[in-house]
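Why does this matter for the project? Reviewers at the last site visit asked to see concrete outputs rather than summary tables. In response, this paragraph embeds two records directly. Each consists of the residue sequence and, immediately after it, the corresponding structure tokens. Nothing has been edited or filtered.
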Amino acid sequence: MNPDSPTHSSAIDAIAERAMARLRLSSPDAIDDPQTHERLRRVAIASDFAIDTLVRQPELLQSLLRDDGAHAWPAPTLSPEHRTDWPMQLRRYRTAESTRLVWRDVLGLDEVDDTLAGSTRLAERCLQLALEALEAEFAQRHGVVRDREGNVQRLVVFGLGKLGGGELNFSSDVDLVYAYEHDGESDGARALDAEHYFARLGQQLAKLLDELTVDGFCHRVDLRLRPYGNAGRVAWSFTAMEQYFQREGRDWERYAWQKARPVAGDIDAGERFLESLRPFVYRRYLDFGALDGLRGMKASISAEVARKELADDIKRGPGGIREIEFLVQALQLIYGGREPALRDRRLLPSLQALVEARQMSDDAGSMLAHAYRFLRRLENRLQMLRDAQTHALPDAEGDRARIAIALDHADWASLREALDGQRARVTAEFEALLAPRRKRNAPDAITAYWRALPDGGDSAVLGDAGFVEAGNADGVLRDFARSPGVRGLSDSTRARLDRVMPALLQGAAASSEPMLALRRLLALLHNVLRRSAYLALLDEQPAALARLVEVVTRSALLAERLAAYPLLLDELLDARVAGPLPGREALHAACIAVAEDADDDAEAVLQALNEVRQALSFRMAMALRDGRQSASDSACQLAWLADGVVARVLRLAEHEVATAHGRVPGARFAVIGYGSLGGEELGFGSDLDLVFLYDSPGGEHAHSDGARPLEATRWFARVAQKVVALLGAVTGAGRLYDVDVRLRPDGAKGLLVSSLSSYRDYQRERAWTWEHQALVRARFIAGDDSLGADFEQVRAQTLSRERDAKTVRDDVVAMRRRMRAELDRSDAGSFDLKQGQGGLVDLEFLLQYAVLAHSAEHAAWLAPRNTPALISTVASDGWLDADEVQALIGAHAVLLDAGLACTLDRRPRRLPIDERIASARESIIAATHRHGLAFDDVPAA
């Protein structure tokens, strides 16, 4: 029936007029003017509950007419002298404040987000008022609970679900869990242990809010989300809850506690507990295993919907609110362990964070946000009608008409059409999240072959698939299938492996080197069999599986790292992998922020820092392999990453030494990077050439100010030793870097750390030419900025000294010839990219000669450290001609790219001389000869 028909229109008019008549009896002077009449008519159509409240509380109507409910209704004072009035006071307050929310929502003064936030604040305030009153009452009767140290313990009330998320619907129940931080006993005449004390307090709280009286209820309380549900104790200590979640926590509880928030009682203690619970909710890796839990919950809800015929339930039905919540929460659980920005309790901010993190498209995010607001607004209106906890569309045509008109739709058909469109879009997006596993369709023959192993299966299937060495492939696969790791899998994990293996085999068979890919993949699988989350990632995400085959086929180094550190599998799906890589500042910030409050736990800092370094360097390697950035850019980024790592390790080292010995007042410390680190041309797996400097106002007589003081020289030596040891310490995520400190003054015979003055004197008086050459690429890496500036001054004074060009040339040539004789690994069939004639070191020596011989006249030559920048700078003053510049920059790029490619594939940096390498060598050899640097009398091949 059309709501615009005379019958429906008159029925709605009659509802409005009956409301007006009731209001005139309670507030005879309030509704005379037409504007007031129209506002009340709109409210009356939308909410019988609001009219009932306004009739019972005329003063509320007066307030709403004055300021349209701009200010919250005043909360009651629950005094112990009027204990019997508490239920009435809370219920009248709840109905008055709820009516204010109806008024503002129906009249378009608030958006749906405001209404949800207002409903949340109202529930929190009622909980806090009731708890505070009951706590005072319990303290009179039983005293307060104290732990062993005598500290007062309070109840912590956790709000879960929409209360925890700050998005409570209008007539929702509140999901609560009661807890307390420490065990103990109350100190009153009738003492109770903590569990019984807080259980009774919690029960009284629920009764005060939930019990139905002549004034109705305040808030329905649901305590079933506590451990073991209704069978579990009412209040839990933090320790007991932690043990429960460690041993028995289930997937649905991860979803539930994702939104948990302390809403009453000891808020600070509650936040501390939630921080300790974070590893249970958010795994450290990409957690695609969360999708299994989601599938299970969705299946249960779908069965309930079918059983109870709830297709028109806008919360649990297809395309309803629950699907949006599950979709967002699942993505948070998958990615939130690695991305803290995704750990928000609120749905809409979480949705936006997913879009910003590129885990969801802008269009999908906008669509879901719009659908969510549409559904939540409709849900609120269904509940506002009679303050009923309902999510079902009404059957009565009169109610349908009222809902549609109050929501500014022409009729019910119009509202239903809009609703169906929103739900269809939500369902499509939700199904897409659960669908990836079902989209994989590995060839039946490969699947049958794998599942027949180890005793059955025909190796000819592998030959047909593309394995040239089918017999060898068959042998290693049978060994793998027989291995204890595979035989010991649980049924669910074995099912995942059975889905993943055929696709991996097909991918390996299609690669350029199938047997190599297979061996590398099996090495990885051996390491992840006990970690079901990684199999879940490959099972749920075909893109990650395909990327894995590609990576292990193309890079031995990355295959080894994936096998050794499966956490890097996350990088295969990280949206940032395909995007722009972070620059110098971002890399430094990422390292410095690692475990920033955990300096007392060096092992935790090093583990976390290693994971960050591994992930970022893996991302750089992927970008280089994919051709998304040049070798020069990759080498720079690797050096910048090392800068950040050293800075973070230095902070940790200084903290450890200062904890034991105090600090040296006014003293400064700096780390100087030499070699490829200083020159911003670091490779994958390169070691770091470091030199340590310090400066102390008191000189050698200065001491640290701790309980066990050290003289300054020893203090800084300890710091330097710590830096070297921490960088080389082995953790579960590997070691950070090997360190070489032989470039310090006097080499291996010298002190590990030098004072600024002794370093200056050494460079001025005793350093060899080759040491000044090394200084060309040296730069300040970490530590005190002012000392870094002083180092730069020493470096500039040293390098810009007047020198005889011929003497420099002779020294440089002699050193290069000695190096060539000792280090060049070229032979008749291959060229040493670094040490060979016309290799990278020849180019470095050419530029170092230029700086040493001529920077006295060209101060600008001192600034650049990396090779391309040095080439461009010396060329700007005409020392290289234009053709040389382009040829040398191109040669450097070719050789550096070839060298990094060798490193990625675990090959020696020696290659056959193809056309590109030959051209690069010729350019470097020509430039060195033109400037009189005959490094080798042997002609180029």
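We now turn to the second protein, recorded in exactly the same manner.
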Amino acid sequence: MSELAARRRAIWDSLPATWRGPAARLVASWLALIVLFMPDWADMADQWWNASTYNHILFVPLISAWLVSLRWPQLRQLEPHAWWPGLVLVGGAALVWLLGAFSGFNLFRHFGAVALLPASAVALLGPRVTLGLLFPLAYLMFLVPFGDELVPALQMITAEISIGLVHASGVPAIIDGVFIETPVGVFEVAEACSGVKFLVAMVAFATFVANLFFRSWWRRAGFMAFAVVVPIVANGIRAWGTIYIAQSQGVEFAAGFDHIVYGWVFFALVLVLVLALSWKFFDREADDPMIDAEAIAARDLGPLSRGQARPLRLLLATGAIVLAVQLWAGAANAMEASVPERIDLPAVEGWEQIDYAPALAWEPKAAGAQHRLLGRYRDGQGRTLDVFVALYAAQREGAEPGAFGQGALDPASDWAFNGAGAPIADAKSEMLLGAGRQGRAAATFYRVGDRLTGSRAALKLAAMRDRLLLDPRPVTMLVLSPETRAPDEAAAIIADFREATGPLGTWLDRLTAGG
């Protein structure tokens, strides 16, 4: 017998007899769920390994396993059993995955795929064992890569902290969105400098620490709030330090220094600071058990104590739920709405189409669209407006107009987000800055059915509705973009263009109908 086989045999022999069957079924069901949702797990694994924001997730399975080992001396006193009500959680996780598959919202897909693991554990192990394993099972949800949605807000927060400190340190500076101009140059709080990678890693770490070293829920909540605020403030201080050093040592020296500091060294220093300021408030003794098995066994669970199931039937029911959502998703995603073979930008009264000649190359990103148009209009006052239209036959993987990185700002281009634009009805309004010098406003509209909206959330909900009802509708993305750094001027140009087109939704319907 090989050493590995002997080790496995020793682990199996160490399990109480009442745990062997449930443990084997749990391992088998988890392996099956990972295989059945392999595209989602592969996508997540790619992000864990290749995206620095999510490298910390590689430690989550190890941390969860260690948390189980800390509870094992108590857990082995509890008797697991299959439990029918656990299928409610299995169905809920499968539904979240299905809605993510319908909308092209990867966060939902990933959340659902991961949530099926703890949900199936609840169903296969029963309510009392679940109480003992509640935190390790919940901690598995940190396997879901999240945080990209926070980048724009964190960029703005970091820029505001930085400019405040720059002024306080006596350096003259002007802020324009995420760009800070000083006597030695212009500094951009780019996406990579937003601090999101340290924030999401700190949240995962702080959650682990809060459970391990605190017993009081008030102290846990206070520690979590502190652990969120400190990295955000520290990142603003780091950005200010780079700008301040550049004033005397030059931009290149400051950039090199920042690249050395801005990495896991910076995160380690912030982590040490948080722990150093918090350790005296820890209220769990080192030898305190993580759970009280006797209290869990004696607890009156009321109706939850009923519902014991036969394991094989429960496994078959779980398989049926998973198979149903996957078949439904496959059928819905195979459907497409009909779209014309050709579309053209129409004439607009009071505006003439002219050659598209931007001061700096700009083109929105619309991966998976069946048609794309980009043109320029000019009115009688000489004002120009760039118009981009993308038409989708369906929203699905690889064709998601509301996905991160799609729309007016192509992350791979020379353009950067520079703050919110002036409010524009039915649109997402934002200001962009290209190569640190060229300004541009962008108002993004989505047309689904008879609804015109600038909300990506509304777009996702529309996709869910279409898939649930197996009723695909085309989606149109429209971006109206004047070259200007003045939000109010941009809003005025866009308002005049909309007045000339008439109701924008109706105008888009005619455009995308090929007429």
